[in-house]
Structure formats: structure tokens, C-alpha cells
Amino acid sequence: MIVSEADFERCLDEVLSAPAVAGGGVVGPDSMMWRVHREAALFLGAGRALLLQLAHPWVSAGIAEQSKVFADPLGRFHRTFSIVYTMVFGTREQAVAVARRLNRRHGAVEGLMTETAGPYTAGSRFLANDVDALRWVHATLVETAMMSYGLLCPPLSPAEREQYWREAMRFAGLFGIPRAALPSDWTSFKAYTAAMMDQETLTVSTAARDIAQRIFAGEATWIGPPRWFTALTAEMLPERLRLAFDLPYGARERRSASRARIWLPRAYAALPDRLRTVGPYQEAMARIRGEPCPSITRLLNRAWIGQPMMPAAGARAPQRSAAG
Questions:
Q1: pLDDT digits over 280-306, tens only?
Q2: Could you tell me the sign of the dihedral formed by the alpha carbons of 168, 171, 173, 176, in that order?
Q3: Domain coordinates of the chain in residue numbers?
Q4: CA quadruple 138, 164, 189, 264: dihedral positive or negative?
Q5: For the chain: N or C, fewer Cβ within 10 A?
């Protein structure tokens, strides 16, 4: 099912039908979304989320067409998190504006498969604004966020996980995913992701493997991710996909991941809140207090999203969106 403009606007109407949150946006400072996504710990799962998205042949086909991904991987990182963090921590107006820009970008991403991958045959058409593909991308963000949060922070209770999922369902509306297409609760969501991991729908294509290898090799940046990060990424993937991506996971990688699980929580707990929480969250808290965005937060935002503040509702979008 393709998300039409009318479908997308209906999803936005449903998102906006909920009562406004004082000082917040789609969700507010008391939400599980803010509690989880403010943590810099979530970046531990960036590699996992990327690879799971690439494992969907339509997603990797769309990314492969964007040569700028390889010329400017840091820019892709910034654009991706600028979109996600503005949806979570921005005002309603900011979240809706960035959602509309993303939807327009997705509408322009289509083409023909250059190879057969799983159920998708060479020469068949792929589109970014497909509900099933969008639902999978959303699922990778949600599940990986929870996994990464649990690595360095106290895990959420079952009730808190359910609340997080209810909020994530609203977040999905900003992608144009109708509520009816989503699992009804956290248990159903986990059943969906577990089933997807075993389905042919997730097939690592030649394009996906090439993109992953180039990114993890640090192409165009001259430096790849640290060994422990790659090892953790491999550990967080199901074996079938880890093997398909040719990710090394021998004795050395297992030791590296095991050591990281020991020292990372200790190091993370010692960080000041200014470094533990991401810049867009700090910007949002300053907004709630009625204060201007501090200079240090603007500096941190440049690291997190490549610009000093989250994009304003009327801001011009960058040329390419990394989320699609």
C-alpha cells in the first residue's frame, strides 16, 4: 500500500487530534519518548538500525541511488537525526513541518530494482512511500532505541514499555503510517519484529552489502567506527543477517563486545548530564523554561544534528533526506 498525500494528511490529523502538551510537541517532557530519546546511549544502536533498514531491499535500493550518501556520510547522519529529534523534541509545528518535508522526499524516491533480492525481482518497481517499508524503518528505530537504552540505562518496566509503544505509534503517524498498520501493543510489536527477522522480505542485496561495507570502512571520512562499536553492532544483529552482511563476529569480536558491555555503563554513568543528553533535548528544555537556547547547546547541536538548533517550522529543507 502506497501512502498518498491524502493518507499522509489523515495520519497527521490523527497525530494532532491528541491534546496539546504544555511546552512539548507531539509528546512532552513527561513522556517515555523524551526519557529514552534524550539519552546519547541510543547512538550505540545506530549501526544496528542502519543495517536492519538496509536489509529491506527497497530501502537499500533507494539509498543506493543517492550517491551523496557515500560522498557525505556525516551529512547523512546529521540529516537523519535532525529529522528524528525534531519529530520527538520539536514543537508540534516543527514536527509536522519536518514530517511533511520527509513525506515529499519519500514521494520522489522510486525506481526499478537492479537485482533480485528476496521477493523483489530485478526490474520491478520500488517506492519509499510504501506502508510496509515505512513500518519496518519505524520498527528498527523503536526496537533499537530500546535495546541501546537498556545497555547503559536502567531498563523500563513492562508498563513503561507499553507507554513507550503507545507514544511510538503516534510518532509513526509522522511517517504516514496508519495506526491500523501497527501492532496493538509491545508484545505484538516484538512478535512482528521477530517474524520479520526470519522472513525473505529481509534479504541482504549486493547493494545493501556494498553500502554497509563502505560505511563501516569509514569511506569518505578516512576513519571507520571503533572495533568495539562494530563488534556490538554484530552482536545486536540476528545471526542470519550478520552473516549476510559479512560482519566479523569471531572470538576477538565477542571479547571486544563483552568488554564494551562492562566499561561502557561505568563510563556513561560518570558523564555529566550535559554530555549524556542530546542537544535537541537540551534545546527543548530551554524552550519549556522560556529561555534562549544556550551557546553550549547550540555547539552540541552541531555535533548531533549538524546545525545550531532544530529546524524551524518554516525552514528550508536540505537537499536530501537521509531517512529516505
A1: 999 999 999 999 999 999 999 999 999
A2: negative
A3: 5-225+278-305
A4: positive
A5: N
- In this structure, of 69-78, 187-196, 210-219, 220-229, the range with the lowest mean pLDDT score is 69-78
Residue 56 to residue 58: CA distance in whole angstroms: 6
Question: Three-class SS string for the chain?
Answer: CECCHHHHHHHHHHHHCCCCCCCCCCCCCCCHHHHHHCEHHHHHHHHHHHHHHHCCHHHHHHHHCCCHHHHCHHHHHHHHHHHHHHHHHCCHHHHHHHHHHHHHHHHHCEEECCCCECCECCCCEEECCEHHHHHHHHHHHHHHHHHHHHHHCCCCCHHHHHHHHHHHHHHHHCCCCCHHHCCCCHHHHHHHHHHHHHCCCCCCCHHHHHHHHHHHCCCCCCCCCCHHHHHHHHHHCCHHHHHHCCCCCCHHHHHHHHHHHHHHHHHHHCCCHHHHECHHHHHHHHHHCCCCCCHHHHHHHHHHHCCCCCCCCCCCCCCCCCCC
Residue owning grid cell 512511500: 129
Q: Which residues pair with residue 110 across a beta bridge?
A: 127
| 126 contact partners, CB below 8 Å, separation of at least 6 | 57, 58, 61, 62, 110, 111, 112, 113, 120
Q: What is the mean pLDDT of the chain?
A: 92
Output the CA–CA distances (angstroms, integers) from residue 276 to 5, 65, 184, 232, in the order listed.
38, 35, 32, 20
